[in-house]
TrEMBL record:
Domain of life according to the entry: Eukaryota
SUPFAM superfamilies: P-loop containing nucleoside triphosphate hydrolases
The name this protein goes by in its record: Septin
Organism annotation: Drosophila kikkawai (Fruit fly)
Annotated Septin-type G domain residues: 30-303
Gene encoding the protein: Septin4
Length: 375
């Protein structure tokens, strides 16, 4: 009699409650990928910050250019990959650096290298996705772009606006004020306000935080509000461990004291690391897939459709110019025309669906933005 309740319980149990565990095991076994682009002029602490974020040394073999090289310096793209494992979870981190950005005398075309690289990765992914072997597609798309703003300016410069304006519809942009220990709290607050005002005046949209679900706990909602209020992040990076009041901290030593990188009163470093790694890394990847890549894919399909229409017109002209004595050739041309018509209809249907999906996504984002209360 004592086994009857257990039997009834097992009988009512189907088993699909283990689906999250199955997905988790599969994801952990496969591992994760994340690509981060870092853009900003030299001397803003980009390399130090990346090493501080991921507790590694990606730039141990870096060589600093001399004065002669800086005069003719152009923007380049350098990729560095690092495999990280934490509690059995593997992450393949790719950091795309842009040495030379903003360092030349003429910086008008500094943005071009960045946009070309992002488009090339989208194009390569689109080609691989359209191929026959789709099982082992390598995702090199840029999931997030950290753009460093110098602390000694009064706001965004024209060079900053030119790049951000060309990138904000291609990649998730997160603004970072580098070497923020140059400023006091009041100066940091005013600089953030001016930067946000510049973005609004130029109709530039940075990465939009997703809204918290209603069932989230209050601590998570408070953390989300603090992250949103901290943009742009004013950070200080350091790879040096110092001892302060008997405690070891990561910080920078000055004659007047120590800047603790991980102290929220000194820097937004912890908030940036929480946002980038702990809470929003997957959403950055989802936004890249569902918004930026789908927009690029819709443009590619539109171009393919236009090319197919031109080919169709060319075939029609060729068929009209043919004489009545070549019935076989005409019939072959008609067959090709029918195939092209079917292909064009199929592509146009796909394009319509893509545009409708992007339109719905944009409307949802507009509704979310209208419902956000400024902190």
């Amino acid at each position: 009699m004592s086994k009857t309740p257990s039997f009834d319980k097992d009988r009512d149990y189907i088993g699909f409650a283990t689906l999250p565990e199955q997905v988790h095991r599969k994801s952990v076994k496969r591992g994760f990928e994340f690509t981060l682009m870092v853009v900003g002029e030299s001397g803003l602490g980009k390399s130090t910050l990346i090493n501080s974020l991921f507790l590694g040394d990606l730039y141990k073999n870096r060589q600093m250019p001399n004065v002669e090289e800086r005069i003719e310096k152009t923007t380049k793209v350098e990729k560095k990959t690092m495999d990280i494992e934490e509690r059995g979870v593997r992450l393949r981190l790719t950091v795309v650096d842009t040495p030379g950005f903003g360092d030349a005398i003429n910086c008008e075309d500094s943005w071009r290298v960045c946009t070309q690289y992002i488009d090339e990765q989208f194009r390569q992914y689109f080609t691989d996705e359209s191929g026959l072997n789709r099982r082992n597609i390598q995702d090199n798309r840029v999931h997030c772009c950290l753009y460093f703003v110098p602390p000694w300016g009064h706001s965004l410069r024209q060079m900053d606006l030119d790049l951000i304006r060309r990138l904000h519809r291609k990649v998730n942009i997160v603004l970072v004020i580098g070497k923020a220990d140059c400023l006091n709290k009041q100066e940091v607050r005013k600089l953030k306000e001016r930067i946000l005002q510049d973005l609004e005046d130029n109709h530039i949209q940075l990465y939009q935080f997703p809204e918290c679900d209603s069932d989230e706990d209050e601590d998570f909602k408070q953390q989300d509000r603090e992250l949103k209020a901290s943009i742009p992040f004013a950070v200080v990076g350091s790879n040096t461990i110092l001892e302060v009041a008997g405690k070891k901290v990561r910080g920078r030593q000055y004659p007047w004291g120590v800047v603790n990188v991980e102290d929220p009163e000194h820097s937004d470093f912890i908030k940036l690391r929480t946002f980038l790694i702990s809470t929003h890394m997957q959403d950055l990847k989802d936004t890249t897939q569902d918004v930026h890549y789908e927009n690029f894919r819709a443009q590619c399909i539109s171009q393919i459709s236009q090319h197919a229409l031109r080919e169709r017109g060319k075939l029609k002209r060729d068929s009209i110019s043919s004489t009545n004595g070549f019935d076989a050739a005409i019939s072959e041309t008609d067959r090709l025309l029918l195939q092209k018509d079917e292909e064009i209809r199929r592509m146009q249907d796909m394009l319509t669906q893509m545009q409708e999906k992007l339109k719905q996504t944009h409307l949802m984002e507009m509704k979310k933005n209208d419902s956000v209360i400024d902190v």
